[in-house]
Specification:
By secondary structure, the protein is mainly alpha-helical. The protein has three domains: 48 residues; 94 residues, Orthogonal Bundle (DNA polymerase, domain 1), CATH 1.10.150; 190 residues, Intergrase catalytic core (hpI Integrase, Chain A, Orthogonal Bundle). A three-stranded antiparallel beta sheet has the order 1-2-3, with helices on one face. The protein has a three-stranded antiparallel beta sheet with strand order 4-5-8. A two-stranded antiparallel sheet has the order 6-7. The longest helix has 20 residues. The termini are far apart.
Amino acid sequence: MKRRANGEGSIFKRKNGRWEAHASIKQLNGTTKRVCVSAKSHEAVRAKLKAILERDSQNLPYMQKDWIVGEYLDYWVEEVQKEKIRETTLSTYRRMIKNHIKPTLGHHKLKNLGVSHVRLALNELKRRGCSGAIQQKYLIMLTACLNCAMREEIISRNVAKLVERPEYIPKETAIWTAKQAVHFIGAIKDHPQFIAFLLLLTYGMRRGEVLGLRWCDVDFDNGWIHVRQQIDRIDGVIMARELKTKNSRRTLPLRPIVRAALLAHAKKSGSAIMPFCASFSHHFELSTEGTIIVSKYDTPLEPRSLARCFHRLTEKVGLPRIKLHALRHTTATILKDLNVDIKDVQLLLGHANISTTLSIYQHGTLETQCAAVSDIEEHLLPA
C-alpha cells in the first residue's frame, strides 16, 4: 500500500472496531494542529478526513464543534450581540429566534444550511399567517447571524443573502391634523396624565423619554428641560435606561404653557419638585425615582398603560384612532407646515440624521397639498 504523504492524514482501525483518522492542519496563527475524527466504517471516516483536508486547502479553520443552527443563533445573540445592542432590541431578537427561526431552521446543521431551507422556512411563515414585516425581520436577522458565521470562518457563504426578500410595503402612519391635536389637548386638560400628552405633542418626545423625565431634569430657573433617560419594560421589569442614541440626549426650551402645566401637575398630584441637577455626563445615574409621570401608586407609569390611556381618551373625545407614537409624527408634520427649519426639527426630535426626520416623520397633509395646488392654479390661470 502506498504510504500517505506528510499532511495527508492517516486512517486506522481501533481495537473496538471503529475507524479513526488523524491529520495535521494549519491554524490562523501559522502553527499546525493534530485533529482526530472517528466513525463506524472506513468510508465514513475517510469522508470526514477528506472534508477536513479540503477546508485546510482553502485556508479555512477546522471547527471541532459541528454547529446546529439553533445553537449558533443562541451563541450569536448572547455572546456576540448582547453587548452591542439595546435591551429592547435584544429582547426582540430573542423572541424572533424562539418563535420563528428555531421552529423552522433550528434543527439543521449550520454547515449544511442551503438556500432552499431558508426559502421553505419563509414559505412556512407565510402559511402560518406571519406578516411581510415579520418575514423581512426574519431574513434580516438570519443574514446578520450567518454573516457572523462567515467572519468566524465556520461557513463559506451566506445562503440568506441568496434568498429573495419577501415583499412588504409599510403602511402609511396615520397622524392628526393640527386642529385635531389642539382639540385633543383642550379636551383632556383635567385628566391626570394631561402633562404626558402635552409633552408628547409639544416636543415630539418619545414615550419612554416622557415617562423617564424627572423633576430634577427640569430647570425651572433658566427655562430648560433636559432629556437624559427613558423608561422601558424589559423582560417584565420597568427600568430606567440610556437613551436611544447620543442625539436623543438633548435640551429643550421650557415654554410658559408647559411650565405652568408642570407646576399645576405637581400641585394636583402632590409631587415634590426636586431641585434641578446640573451635573450630567455619559455616566449620569439612571433612576426611576422622582419621575414626573407616575401611576396611581406613585410608581413609574407602565409604557403600555400610557398607550391604553391614550386610546381610551381618543375614543372619548371622538378623534380618529392613531398609535401613541404617531403623536411624534404629528408634531414633526405640524412643524413642517409651520416652515420650521428641518435642522431645528431634527434636533428637537433627537434624530441622528435629517433623512430620518424627512423621510419617516414628516408627512404630507391634504391642507398643504390643496394650498400647493392653489398656488399652481394661480400661476397657470391668473385672474
